[in-house]
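Much of what follows relies on a compact textual record of a protein's fold. With that in mind, consider the following protein and its fold in token form.
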Amino acid sequence: MRWFQFRSVFAKLFVSVLVALILFAIAMLLLNQSVQNNSASLRTRAVASQLVNQVEPFLQKAQASDSPIKAQIMLAVVKKTFEIFDDSLDAKIGLYSVDGYLVFKTDNADLPAKLPEEPSWLMSNFPILFGTVSPIQAQITSSTGHTVLYEPRHQPHRSTLSAVLNLFTGTLLLLMLMAGVLWWIARSMTWRINQLNHQLAQLGEGDFTARVGVHGDDEIASLARGFNQAAQKIEKLVAANNLLLAHASHELRTPITRIRLQVEMMDMLAQELSEDKKLKFDKRAAAINRDLSGLNQLVESILLVSRLDAGHALQQVERLDLYTLVQQESQHYPKSHLYGESIIIDGQPQLLTHLIRNLLNNAMIHGIPPVQVYVYGVENMQQVEFIPTRLAVDTLTVDTLGADKQDTDVDVIHTDLAHTNINHPVLTTQHSNQYDNLNHLDSPHNLNNHHTLDKEHDKHSPKAHPNKNHKKSARIAMSDTAQKAQETLAKMRQKPLPTVVYRHAVLAVIDQGLGVPIDKREDIFSPFVRLKQEKKGSGLGLSLVAQIVEAHRGHIITDTWQGHTRFLVVLPIKSK
């Protein structure tokens, strides 16, 4: 049961008091056992002391007498006294010398010939601990050095089984009764704490209507009232904040719309101006529209930041394809290339679209185009930094086809291919063994063969048109490489891939910049931080990206990948 874990207050309270009750019961039983044993021992010792007092004068005379006959007579009197006590008290009585040896004993007394050692207090009172039951006896030493051993013939019944029963019987019912009472007391105290904890968790998740029932008039009830007051104030503040955001959104967009409308109306009036003045007016109007668009984006960013801070940005989460979302947004950026696969996640489409747009804008404005965008899934966080080989094949194919359309020198083309190495450690994942054919496609041997063929072609080509022949050879080589890459990619895609359960979706945005300085990689995700002040932007883009990622319980990092700037966004994938 969840509430019976030792981390809970109920378990600690119940177990601690129950253990205290058990220890108290055991102590009471031991004390009772000790008192009973001591009572029997005290009675035996009192009788033995009285017996010694009566025979001690005779022992003194026997010890002081010089006549053996007189000494024997005195000892006979002592023995007769022992027999009288034996008849009346039914006890075993023996007299031991100063050396501890038996002098005489009463009839039918199975006493040892050597005086036994007295049992310890622990053995006498708790024989169950030693597995033996010592008889109750008393050893009294007289002034003459003789010892009288007195042992009742009828010992109290103290078997091991009875000792065990005496230890636990009689307290079991008491412990059960006390445990029931303790259970009720502990639950009456802790169930309200559990209820408060549950409502507090709901409040933390954004349910500002969470309230706790107030029961009683103790400290926990006072805590519940304080929680309800705090939750009510938070609910009012959030409602006021939402109302303010709604009004601010409308009030800020309205003047922007009016200004834009005024510019359009002025453009209609500017048709009557001369051509030179109309050209100047169009430039000014375009600048005003750009500033208005930037101001509108800034307003949207500020409102989005407010919604994220208020915790209301993820109220409508749906399952979506991250690749499709990135594809729809990246098509507005001609200098971006998308490589990826379908990854289904749970998220807020508008926020994720804003995230993708801000990352692409950041790469285009603050980085160096072109920009490569990767969307892929990983099984664990250790695989996040490594771009899967299957996407690297797509990258090689697209780059090769793109280079085929350009008038590029042969040496430059092969240099680019050599740098686009599919077997680079950064591009290697656990699935690389499925794509061994790719190594043959982009191996140095094949590249050298292409280069050798090109040189041989140059030797036999007319010298009047060297550049033309180089370009033609380059296009042929690149076309062949692209065709082989496409064929290999098609074959690999036809092969059934092993069933892989992705736990994280990764969005990687890579531009041709040199990377963010290590000491600035955390600062760039703070609001209004710009590494280069001369660049455009409000400084809210990456801050919004970080907040959106955090709202989706993901992670974002920036690093340098093959000498270029890379931003990695990792989002969790919920299991079906």
